[in-house]
Design a protein that fits this description.
The structure is a single chain. With about 625 residues, this protein is an alpha/beta fold. It folds into 3 domains: about 280 residues, Rossmann fold; about 80 residues, Elongation Factor Tu (Ef-tu), domain 3; about 200 residues, NAD(P)-binding Rossmann-like Domain (Rossmann fold, 3-Layer(aba) Sandwich). Helices cover about 30% and strands about 15% of the residues. It contains 15 helices and 26 strands. Helix 7 packs across helix 8 and helix 7 packs across helix 9. The N terminus is likely disordered.
């Protein structure tokens, strides 16, 4: 299936200026005609809903009639204790609808069952996303979507890991695989032979399979405005275009123009992909062997639920051992050609089983962003979608030893998080003193996560500062702000919205920059009181002149956003963390503060007991 058919649509360019810059008018027009159905409104589901509604589809339908439980509150920021027992979907549909009045947001009564689907409902949507539901129901809905050219996405985030599966049909057309400007460059020479070797004056930046045409070539004039020719890259300065032996001899000059071509992608349905997943999309190059293990773990989890009627108990070694044994048996009995790992990683599967009943906001937020992007790709036909599985985990966040008593639930709003990381770590989180500088798009997301996680909620504190006021263009990506908040200070409005998500959340907003003119407020005792500082700002040149930050003098105005981490008690050489092959400076940088302030001069940053992001 290609993207949804576009119709003439007036796009609010003031509201969606940033999205238009990324997608363009044509893709945005397709987005504005798309209809999306989301099944499941726990932490992951509400993240997906928030992201897609803000972007501006035509219609967004929700379905989740399961009752709200205390476990939901650790990641579902639009549910509270007063919603316990109420159906999740109807309980938060009004709050989601207020994110973007231009989108029709509503809750549907039923999508049917694995035995009988509500096909009249399903066939009206461009994309169907499932974050909840049995495997039998997912297989049934996916089979229907695959046959009717409806894009299907499935995702879940048990504990400290997550999965995304995409099936966009037999023939999904991508109009632009990467969204980049078509490349153009000058020619040094072209050979007259069977291979037609083109040499560029500078690095061409092309890839095998790209198409090019030519202009202003002297001598070999047959290439000027020729039909796009497929290339084979030989090295950064040379590529072949095929037989040129019948053309005139190249004399001089000429320009190469890349011609972007639509690409048709073929997807396997879920039933086939589960057994034969193919290549997994790499997400962590330090754990390239992990996705096959996680694929087995997710398969074993469904088998475990089928046999026992429940998920493994958090922190329960007996349940974990039973789960691992089941996974090993499934792997051993896998038929030829089906997914199978050479050696089952017992440690990884044990960690999976011990924590899979948990739910944490950061993991839901990450996968909510990933799935939101896949929805945009499905609706617009722009950028290459995931083919077809993506896995990611953060088991390194777990304590060295998991004790059952540490995972005993407390009947509190943090139970979902305790089921994933334990009470000891939860208590540490609640005592943290944090300073967030910036309440824009990144800052709003950080505050949301911290609020539901309970950061600083028990004798801790979150400090927030931003000197800007809210503009209308902020509303399409800074979800803590609404139309009524325009022209109000970002920090005040964001702090109030975050506190409404969790009454225990301790937050103190400021409306001021961090610099020499505010040292009376952000003084030495203030900095010494902090555990972590996070700078959620646009680029390096906007970094605060805090006593713990030295701006890299070579950072250009157009510094791109990317990040690296430095941990306490280490020294980080700045050069080693510049993006490979890039002249740009890192902008989201994790620094650490020593009692004598950071040694940011020269090439190193002295790290000690205070962390900075």
């Amino acid at each position: 299936m290609s993207a949804a058919a576009a119709a003439p649509t007036k796009i609010d360019e003031d509201l969606h200026s940033r999205t238009l810059y990324v997608l363009g008018h044509e893709a945005m027009a397709k987005m504005s005609q798309a209809k999306v159905l989301l099944i499941g409104l726990r932490g992951l589901g509400v993240e997906i809903a928030k992201n897609v509604i803000l972007t501006g589809v035509r219609e967004f339908a929700l379905f989740d009639n399961e009752p709200t439980t205390m476990l939901d509150l650790a990641a579902q920021f639009y549910l509270s204790e007063s919603d316990i027992g109420k159906p999740r979907g109807p309980a938060c549909v009004d709050k989601l609808a207020r994110l973007n009045p231009a989108v029709k947001v509503h809750h549907v009564d039923s999508v049917g069952t694995a035995g009988k689907l509500n096909t009249d409902l399903l066939k009206s949507f461009t994309v169907v996303v499932m974050t909840e539901g049995s495997v039998a129901l997912q297989l049934k809905i996916n089979d229907f979507c695959h046959k009717h050219n409806i894009c299907f996405i499935s995702s879940s985030t048990p504990g400290l890991c997550g999965r995304v599966f995409c099936d966009f049909g037999e023939k999904f057309v991508v109009s632009d695989t990467n969204g980049e400007q078509a490349k153009t460059f000058m020619i040094a020479s072209i050979t007259k032979d069977s291979s037609g070797l083109v040499t560029s004056l500078l690095r061409h930046g092309l890839e095998d399979g790209d198409f090019v045409t030519f202009t202003e070539v002297e001598g070999m004039t047959q290439l000027n405005r020729c039909k796009p020719r497929k290339i084979t890259v030989k090295d950064p300065h040379n590529f072949e275009i095929g037989d040129t032996s019948e053309f005139g001899a190249y004399v001089r000059g000429g320009t190469v123009l890349q011609v972007k071509q639509p690409k048709t992608l073929h997807f396997k349905p879920l039933a086939t992909a589960l057994k034969q997943p193919g290549e997994f999309l790499a997400t962590d190059f330090g754990k390239l062997e992990r996705p096959p293990q996680l694929h087995l773990a997710f398969t074993a989890l469904e088998e475990y639920k089928s046999k026992t009627g429940k998920l493994p108990t958090p922190g329960n070694a007996k349940d974990a051992a039973q789960f691992v044994a089941l996974a090993q048996a499934l792997n051993k009995s896998a038929p030829a050609g089906h997914h199978k790992v050479e050696t089952v990683n017992v440690k990884v599967l044990t960690q999976f089983a011990l924590t899979c009943q948990g739910s944490i906001s950061p993991m839901a937020s990450v996968f909510g962003g990933i799935v939101g992007q896949e929805v945009l790709k499905a609706c617009s036909g722009k950028f290459s979608p995931i083919q077809q599985f993506l896995y990611l985990d953060s088991f390194e966040s777990l304590p060295d030893k998991i004790v059952a008593s540490d995972y005993a639930l407390t009947k509190s709003r943090y139970d979902g998080q305790i089921a994933a990381i334990g009470k000891q770590l939860q208590n540490k989180i609640m005592k943290q003193h944090m300073f967030l500088i910036g309440a824009g798009a990144i800052g709003c997301e950080m505050l949301k996560c911290w609020a539901v996680m309970g950061v600083g909620a028990n004798r801790g504190m979150v400090h927030l500062t931003d000197m800007d006021n809210i503009e209308r263009s902020n509303l399409s990506r800074q979800f803590l702000f609404r139309e009524k908040d325009v022209k109000q200070p970002k920090s005040n409005v964001a702090a109030k919205a975050a506190a409404e998500m969790n009454p225990d959340f301790n937050i103190r907003p400021y409306v001021m920059r961090v610099g020499s003119d505010t040292e009376d407020q952000f003084n030495e005792p203030f900095w010494d009181s902090l555990d972590v500082v996070v700078t959620a700002l646009d680029n390096v040149l906007c970094r605060p002149a805090s006593p713990c930050w030295t701006r890299a003098p070579w950072a250009p105005k157009e510094a791109r956003r990317w990040s690296f981490l430095a941990y306490p008690n280490t020294t980080v050489r700045r050069e080693t963390h510049r993006k490979p092959g890039s002249r740009y400076a890192p902008s989201n940088t994790f620094l650490t503060r020593s009692s004598t302030r950071c040694n940011g001069r020269g090439t190193g940053l002295k790290a000690s007991s205070r962390s900075f992001l």
